[in-house]
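Agenda item 2: iron/sulfur cluster complex prediction
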Amino acid sequence: MKIGIIRCRATENYCPGTTDFKTLALRKGSFASLPEDEELELVGFISCGGCPGKDAVLRARELMRRGAECIAFASCIRQGNPLGFPCPQAENLINAVKRDLGPHIKFLDFTHK
Ligand code: SF4
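Presented output:
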């Protein structure tokens, strides 16, 4: 399964996404819920574009255009990792992407604990 990850632009300033990449490689966190018999391939890792996150929709479309079958929202968005500072727009951002991309793509609302 091809995966695209969308992360928080503000968190990008101090987090290179190491735990997301490691969690995906080890099929842990939310990636453990994906079918065991499918190889996981990361096709893109991109930010929301900055507050208030509206560019996440365009960026998710681009990930899908490049083959993503699953969009994962990095834990910096809803859980606020690693600072415990969730995105104030998390629900709007995630719901806008889900509405736009529709039912034929899988979504993961976080990546790791
Ligand atoms: S909209 Fe949310 S996810 Fe995007 S940069 Fe701002 S705080 Fe981060």
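Discussion summary: The two ends are 22 Å apart (CA to CA).
Owner for follow-up: CH.
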